[in-house]
Amino acid sequence: xxxxxxxxxxxxxxxxxxxxxxxxxxxxxxxVVPFTLQFLFTMLAGLLLGGRLGAISVGAYVILGLIGLPIxxxxxxxxxxxxxxxxxxxxxxxxxxxxxxxxxxxxxxxYKRLLAADFIGLVIVYTFGLVYCYFISNFYLGKAVxxxxxxxxxxxxxxxxDIFLCIAAAVISKKVIPIVHSR
Length: 183
Known about the structure:
Layout: H1 7-23, E1 27-28, E2 35-36, H2 38-49, H3 51-66, H4 86-103, H5 111-140, H6 147-156, H7 159-181
Helix pairs in contact: 1-2, 1-3, 2-3, 2-4, 2-7, 3-4, 4-5, 5-6, 5-7
C-alpha cells in the first residue's frame, strides 16, 4: 500500500535532487574518466530516504535534466537519451530504490548491511551503464566499440572511485540515518 508524500518527504526529495545535480558538477580530476559525486548522492538518497523516496528524488533529477535543465554532467535535454552515458542515469534511479529498500529493512542498519546495499547498487548502475553504452554506441551512434573497450573505460577505470564512494556513503549513512528517521 502506498502512502501519500508528506511535506517533509517532498522537501527531502528536493534536497537530494539538488545534491545530485550539484554532484554532477563536482569533478575530481583523475586521468581518462571524469569522476563526479553524482553516484555518492544517488546512493545517499536511497540509504537515507529509503527506496521509494530515494528513487523519486533521483527520478526527479533525471526528468529535470531531460526537460532541458543542464544538470547532467554534459548538459541536458531530451537528446541526452542518445548519449552513451544515459544508461548510468537509469541505473541511478533503480539502484537508489534497491539500495534504500535493502538498507532500510531494519531500523538501525549495520555497516555491513549498508555496504552490501551500496555494492548491489554499484552493480546495478554499472550494468545499466555498460549495456546502454555498448548498444547506443554500436547501434545508434554507429561507432564500432567492442565490449572490452566499454568495460575498460566504463568500468575498470571508473569503478575504484565509486567503490570509495560506496564506503563513504555507508559511513555517512550510519551516522545520519538515526537523525533522518527521528521525527
